[in-house]
Amino acid sequence: MRVGLLIPPVPRLRAAFAIAAAAYTALAIAVTFPLILHLRSVVPSDLGDPLLSMSILWWNAHVVPLTERWWNGFAFVPATGMMAFSDHRLGVSLLATPLQWLGASPLSSYNIVFILTFPLCALAGHVLGYTLTRRHDAAAIAGVAFGFNPFRIAHLSHLELLAAFAMPIALAALHKFLEDRQAKWMVLFGVALVMQGLCATYYLLFFLVLLGLWMLWFVRDWRTVAAIASATAAAGVMLLPIAIPYQRIHAFHGFERPLDEIRVYSGDFTSIFTASYRSLVWAFSFGLSPGPEHELFPGLTIMVLAVIGCVTSLRRAAPLRSPKRTSAILFVASAVGAAVSLSYVALGRWSLGLGPIRLLVSDSYKAASYAVLLFIVGIATLPAVRSVWQRRSAFAFYVIATALMFVCSLGPDPTFLGERVLYASVYRWLMALPVFGTSVRVPARFAMVAILTLAAAAALAFNRFKLTPSARRVIAGVVLAGVIADGWMRPLDLLPPPQMWPTPTHYDFGPVVELPLDFSTDFQAMYRATLHGHPIANGQSGFSPASYEVLQLTLNDGNPRGLDALMESKPLLVAVNRRADTTGRWQRIADIAERGKRLGQNGDWTFYGVEPLRRAACVAQNIPIVSVTHAGEPIDIRLLTDHDASTRWSTPEPQKNNDTVEVDVGRQSKLCTLGISLGTEWHAYPRDLDVTTSTDGVMWTRQFKGSPAGLLVRGAAENPRDVWMTVPLGGAVARYVRMRLDAPYLTEPWLIAELRVTGD
User: What is d(CA 522, CA 539) in angstroms, rounded to the nearest whole number?
Assistant: First the structure.
C-alpha cells in the first residue's frame, strides 16, 4: 500500500510521520520486550496458533501462491485444499517472504512480522487521525489506541488478526477523496481493501459493513457512490482468485459453522469491559465475561474521551427544545417495553387479558428489543441528532459506528451475563447475506473494527478541546500515557520452539505422521514440517477435514490400517513421541502396522517406516447389481443404487460377528472393486471386514480381509460429504461378492448408503 500518498509532500510533515513511525516501533519493541533479543530462539505467546501461522508463512515463501500445489498445502495428508481451512496469511507474507528469501528462519521471520504489526497498525491509525484532525497530537491518540489496545493483547496468538493496518488507510483514503475527488484516493482505497483481504478475511467482511454505514452517512451524490462502488468491485475482482477456490473447497468439504458455535464465539454486553489476563492494568476484569474471545475491552482512556466529546458536543449545540410529541411518545413506549422486560425478570412468565386482547410475556428479550428500537428511533428524532446528521458530523458518525460495531460483535443473539437480551440483532440481519451466513465463526472480532472507529472518535474528541498550546501538550501527554497504560501487557510469554527430531538419513521417505494425533502436538508437527520439508498427516486449522477425523478415529480404535491412506509412491515415516505416549499405546499401534518396520529410537522419538501398498491397475466400469441380500433376506436394491447417500440400509441391531451381505451382479464378470458408501456416517464403519467372491455361490475366494480403515480414510479424502470404501477385488472373475463382519461393534449398526461394483 502506498501510505505515503496520504502524507503531504512537505518535509516537515514527512519528518513528523517518520518520527511517529520510529516512536511506534520503539513502543512495540518495549511492549514485546525482550522478544527483540531472542528472535531466532523463542515463540511469543504460546505454542498453538503462532506455530500454525509460522508454518503457513513458510509455505507461502516456498511455493508459488494460488497454484494447485499451494492450495493443497503441506498438512492433513491425504486431504486436499488445506490452505483454505484457515486464513492464508498472504498479506503478512509480503513482509515475511522477503525475510525468508534473505535467509531468515520461519521462526525469526514470524517474530519480526509479529513485532511489526504493532507499529504498522499504529502508524495507519495515526494517518487516519491526522486526516480527520490535521493535528499530530490527536493523530497520535488514534495511532496508539489502534496499534496498542487491550483487544490486541487478547489476540497475540493470531497474527492475521494483529495485521489490521489496511482498514485505517482505507478510511483515510475515503475522507481524502471527499475533500478533493482525486482518483488516486480511490486507487489507494482499493489497494487497502485488497491488502486487508490478504491479511484477514474477517476484517475485510466486517469492514465492508462499516463501509456501507460510512457511505450512508457521508456520501451525498451518485458520482461518489459510483466511484467507491467501482473501487470496491475492482478490489473484489482482484480477490476472486482466492475467494472462488475458498468457496469451492469449503463446499467440497461441507464446511460450515453451526449456529450454536457462532453463538459461543459471540461477545456478551459485559465483554466490552473484559480485558485479557495478559493486560497489566486491566487483568482483574478477566473472567467478567467468561467465554472464548470475550475480551473486547477497547481501553478506558479512549472510551472516556469519546464520552467527553459527546457531552461537550451537546453542550455546545443550540439549547435543545423539548422533544416533539413523536419523540416523547417513542420514549414513553420504550420505557413501557423496558418495564415489561424487567417484569419477566422479576416475575417470570405471566399473561394479562383485556377483553379479547391477551398479553403474554414469555421471555424478556423480545420486549427489551422493542424498547431499544423505540429508544433509538426516539433519539434519532431529537433536534440535536438531526443536526449532526444534516452536518454529516465525522465525530457523530464514528461514535454511532462504534456502538453498531460493538453490537455486531455480540453475534446473532446478544446476551448480558449469559442471558439473551435482544431478539433480532444487527448481526442476525447480516447472516442473511451470502458472505456471512454460517461461514463466519467469530462475530466477536467485530470489536477490532469498533476499536478503530472509537480511536477515530477519541482523536476527534481531543481535537475539540479548546486549550492553550502548553495545556494541550500536557493533556495530550496524559491522554497518551493513559492509552499506553490501557494497552500495556504483562511480560510476554516467550517459549522455546518445538525440538526437531533427528531425520532418519538412511531411509527415503515421503509423507510423515507424528503420533499421537493431538491438538497441541499437531501444531508442533506443523512447525517441524518447516524444518524437514515433508508433507504431514497432522494438522490444526480453522476447519479439520473428514479424512483427518477418520484417521484419528481409526487410530484411537487401536487400528493402524488407516495409515495405508497416507502414502502413494514413497514410504510413510511414523514418528512416535514417547514423551507424549506415556502408556506406550501409540508404539504398540505402530508396531502392528502392516508392511511396517521399526527404524530405531533417538531421544524421545521412535521411528517406523511403512511401505506403500502396491496394487495392480484394473480398468473398470460400473456393473449393474441384480440383487443384494442380508443373511439370506433380500434388501431393497433401490436404497443402495439411487445415488442418494441419505437413503440407506442398516441392521436393526449393532454390528455382530459373521453377519453377511451378498451382492449378485447377474453374470460372471471380471470384478475390479466393490464400493461401499457410508454417506456421512463414517464413524459406523465395519471394524473388521472379510470380502470374498464366487462364480457359483458355493466356492468363495478371499479378496480382502481385515480393517478397511485405510480405505475409509482415502474415501473421506476423495469425497468428504459421501465417504466410500473402495475394496479391491483384484480382477477376479466372479458373479457374487460377499461381505462378512469379522468383529462386533456394539455401539453402531451395520449400514450401507450405496453400493457399487466395477469391472469388465
Answer: 5
Regarding whether 733 and 691 lie in a shared domain, the answer is yes
406 lies in some domain: no
| Same domain, yes or no: 173 and 42 | yes
**pLDDT for position 316:** 64
Note whether 193 and 204 are within 8 A (CB): yes
Place of cell 475394496: 727
Residue 53: inside a domain: yes
Looking at the structure, tell me whether residues 693 and 606 fall in a common domain.
no
Can you give the three-state secondary structure of 156-223, one letter per residue?
Answer: CCCHHHHCCCHHHHHHHHHHHHHHHCCHHHHHHHHHHHHHHHHHCHHHHHHHHHHHHHHHHHHCCCHH
Asked if residue 394 is part of any domain, the answer here is no
pLDDT of residue 375: 80
Q: For the chain, what percent of residues have pLDDT higher than 70? A: 96
Neighbours of 539 (CB within 10 A): 26
Q: Are residues 716 and 587 in the same domain?
A: no
Same domain, 563 and 657: no
359: amino acid identity, one letter:
L
Dist CA 487 CA 151 (whole Å): 8
What is the Cα–Cα distance from 738 to 239, expressed in whole angstroms?
52
Predicted local confidence at residue 434, as pLDDT: 81
Residue 421: the pLDDT is 85
Which is higher by pLDDT, 327 or 199? 199
Of 559, 581, 610, the one marking the end of a domain is 610
DSSP string, 478-504: HHHHHHHHHH-BSSPPEEPPPPPPPPP
- Cβ(24)–Cβ(118) below 8 Å: yes
Q: What is the pLDDT of residues 15-55, one digit of tens each?
A: 888 999 999 999 999 999 999 999 999 999 999 999 999 99
Q: Are 324 and 381 in contact (CB under 8 A)?
A: yes
What is the DSSP code string of 643-682? S-TTS-EEEEEEE-TT-EEEEEEEEEEEEEEEEEEEET-G
Grid cell locating 317: 449545540
Same domain, 576 and 640: no
Please state, as a whole number, how many other Cβ atoms lie within 10 Å of the Cβ of residue 473: 12
CB 691 within 8 A of CB 742: no
Q: Give yes or no for residue 512 having a pLDDT over 80.
A: yes
Q: What pLDDT, on a 0 to 100 scale, did the predictor assign at position 101? A: 97
Q: What is the pLDDT of residue 5?
A: 60
Print the domain residue range for 545.
512-610
Q: Are 552 and 468 contained in the same domain?
A: no
Q: For the whole prediction, is pTM greater than 0.85?
A: yes
C-alpha–C-alpha distance, residues 392 and 132, integer Å: 13
Which three cell numbers mark 214? 460510512
Distance separating alpha carbons of residues 443 and 403, to the nearest angstrom: 15
More confident residue, 617 or 149: 149
pLDDT surpasses 60 at 2 = no
CA–CA–CA angle 176, 179, 182 (5° rounding): 70
Q: Give residue 603's Cα distance to chain centre.
A: 36
CATH number, domain at 704?
2.60.120.260
Between strands 494-495 and 512-515, the pairing is: unpaired
Asked if pLDDT for residue 3 goes beyond 60, the answer is no
The tally of domains found in the chain comes to: 3
Has residue 418 been placed in a domain?
A: no
One domain, residues 586 and 635: no
* Spatial distance between the Cα atoms of 392 and 49, rounded to a whole number of angstroms: 42
Return the pLDDT at 740: 96
Q: 686, exposed or middle or buried, with CB in 10 Å at 0-12, 13-18, 19+?
A: buried
